[in-house]
């Protein structure tokens, strides 16, 4: 039974690596394991329990509203051009200090990815502005794309990322934290993740100097010089994308300036969306079209994120029914270091080869993270390491949607981009994992 389950899991990940539809693959694999488990155990409720796990995620009151409102808000910020003004406001100061241009671009993208948590979305929104800006500063196109791509894992500490509410929910059910508040998880992840991007960006800066691809590497003049100089930043529009994140921070239990229950993630995102609509009206944008963009973004969030979470839950239920989860937990109980390494290495490698670590990280968190106490760790530590490692692994994958978008903007080969992000990403996952287990 266990060997059959392990074979199914390996085939599942191989199919995801081959770019088969992840939601379908996870669902079918979960059902297959549940059917085998039901036949072996003679229990008529095994498949039903797996399906129930799927349905519960579709109506998860702590998860679904967060994801759909964050994705809707991000769509509105892109449509109203507020994200354009924020990016330009952050980039312009870099022109005065050439040495920090490459690491600064990575850190800026990382920070923006917290506000706009879709890696592909932030690649498109930021890449179309930041890559031309870097090229205007005479950075080689491939390094410009690498600098932006390196920052596309900032979403790991976003309230809208699927994993943080998931980890908070698991930790709350286990009695580890007082409420299922994703900000509690994020506050523990923030410093380790910040250390990771700092180290990664500095290594990329060193690579850019070694390869002579940083500021001043290109001698030709470009039209982007005039475009950047003529762009007029609207401070109000630049601030709006950050407002929901600011409200969430000051309403967190750790800060407590605003009532936490009132200023939830969906409420803060809707406040930001409303402000975006007001800006759109001022600039004569059709408010009906802005509303459509929010609804489309929210729908994409449910389609691309929520259903994937539900499929991962069904997959995890199938692993449990066939006995694989219990065997893995028993194996990991023997050594804390094994659990620590598995949490980081598994999702990281899966993300590298598939371009998306979501499936691996979700399955890991559903199946293994609830048992963190058996390994001498907290649920937040184990779950956070798995999801952060997945985000970083995606940032050195040549098949990730973000790198394909950025390589297209820069006119370079995606493989050349990830050659430059690989070493910084490996360093980031090591630093972040160590920091998470020692500081988290």
Main features:
73% helix, transmembrane, C4_dicarb_anaerob_car-like, 21 helices, 440 residues, C4_dicarb_anaerob_car, single chain
Describe what is shown at a glance.
It is a multi-pass membrane protein. The chain has 21 helices and no strands.
What does it look like?
By secondary structure, the chain is an all-alpha fold. It contains 21 helices and no strands. It has helices at residues 2-17, 22-41, 46-58, 64-79, 82-91, 101-115, 119-136, 141-150, 163-173, 182-210, 224-230, 235-239, 243-250, 265-282, 287-321, 324-333, 336-354, 358-367, 379-394, 401-410, 414-439. The radius of gyration is 22 Å and the shape is globular. One of its GO terms (molecular function) is C4-dicarboxylate transmembrane transporter activity. It is a multi-pass membrane protein. It comes from Mesosutterella multiformis.
Largest sheet composition: none
Beta fraction: under 5%
Unreliable sequence segments: none
Strand element count: 0
Number of discrete helical segments? 21
- Whole-angstrom Rg: 22 Å
Number of domains as seen in the coordinates: 1
Helix content: over 70%
SSE sequence, one letter per element: HHHHHHHHHHHHHHHHHHHHH
Which overall shape is indicated by the principal axes computed on the Cα atoms?
globular
Mean pLDDT: 84
Q: What is the straight-line distance between the termini?
A: 37 Å
Helix vs. strand class: mainly alpha
